[in-house]
Amino acid sequence: MLALAMRENSSQLVPINDSGRQSSKCLFGLDADALAACMVEAGEPAWRGRQLAEALYRQRIAELDAITTLPKALRQRLATEGWQVGRPAITQVFQSADGTERYLVEGQSGDGLTVETVWMPEGDDGEIGDGSDGEIPQTPDAPGPDYRSWETSEPSPTQKPAHRATICVSSQVGCAVNCDFCLTARLGLQRNLTVGEIAGQVLAVFDRHAVEVGRDRVNLVFMGMGEPFLNYDNFMGAVRLLMREVGLSPQRMTVSTSGIVPGIERFAAEPPEFRPKLAISLNAPNDAIRSQIMPINRKWPIAAVIDAVRQVKLRPRERITFEYVLLGGVTDRPKDAVEVARLISRTGLAAKVNLIAWNPGPGIEYQTPKPEAVETFRRTLTDAGIPAYVRKPRGRDIYAACGQLKRTMEG
Ligand code: SAH
Ligand code: SF4
User: Fold this and answer.
1) Ligand 2 geometric centre to CA of 187 (Å)
2) Number of neighbouring beta carbons within 10 Å of residue 223
3) Does 182 contact ligand 2 (Cβ within 6 A)?
4) CATH says 89-398 is which class?
5) Which atom of ligand 1 is nearest to the CA of 256?
6) What is the pLDDT of residues 148-190, one digit of tens each?
7) Model confidence over 189-204: pLDDT tens digits?
């Protein structure tokens, strides 16, 4: 959560992000309670906070002066005190032949750094078989744990057809984990994103595609730039904001981690109805190969990761997803598939595997696997009783596919 600190000798509330660096005074990213505190501080009644939350997260108003539910004088006063909505904005769009769009999104901190967000119409099949298909509704006006009551009516024939899409969201600028096959790793970690910067990517893309919460079926995957579990508080703060204030179901959200054990343990302690689904980037059949391609494995080897995952209490029908990037000749061999099948079976977890053919990036010396190798790998897993799906590569031509996010400027 974004911490609020009071400045001495001042009536202003100053938002501070978790790195201790003061960000500009952005309302976007504060939840209704924090906004209420902010209003009280400004000498206004607390219910103005709820009004502000409605404006920012339901009506998606991006300019302070356009929030007409607040009296003009109050808007002016807030502006004079330096407050702004400060919602992240899309600054550049790359369009793929397959309909995927990749965006550069500018943050709140005024440091000019951008992150990448990807819109995949029809998704990439990543959510198949993880227990969420079809049954998760979203509604704008009934936040709370019982998302089953949120099923909304079919759109009338006059309405535009509902979206089915997936948005891939970033959690950090760059990444410190340094996986050998990933383009984002080449940036190193530049900084953590704030709550507002994580949630703001989603609302900026919602606006661009006129997404209607409660009608459109949009999945969120926290699989963009960065390691969400190394920015845990802001990542979960954004999830809570998107749930409580925007009205999205956490069962339509999936977070992927490279296996940060303390993060998985914290995640396991979250109430199941308030957390996204979990995906673990396994990527290798054993510790020897995993340590080679993911140095983080030396700190938290496979068994430690699995032990932590076991603490996560699954919802009915929910499965843990293991992601597995197929590197030609390195992790895609038939014997690797046999070993992965054995490893996953032995965990006894309700699991599925998402196979991702490695997407190339400049300066990275791996091979894309042959289609036959991908199919053989998938068959070996399904023959062993493990549901396995091949993720569709989306937007490879614009560097929008998994592991290709590095703020490349080429369209
Ligand atoms: N940092 C998190 C989430 C972002 S990466 C994690 O690693 O899980 C999202 C997924 O993309 C991970 O499963 C990762 O293994 C995969 N990935 C990274 N680089 C890739 C590449 N070049 N081709 C295909 N998948 C890649
Ligand atoms: Fe970071 Fe994930 Fe890329 Fe590894 S695969 S470097 S954890 S973004």
Assistant:
1) 11
2) 25
3) yes
4) alpha beta
5) 8
6) 333 333 444 456 678 899 999 999 999 999 999 999 999 999 9
7) 999 999 999 999 999 9
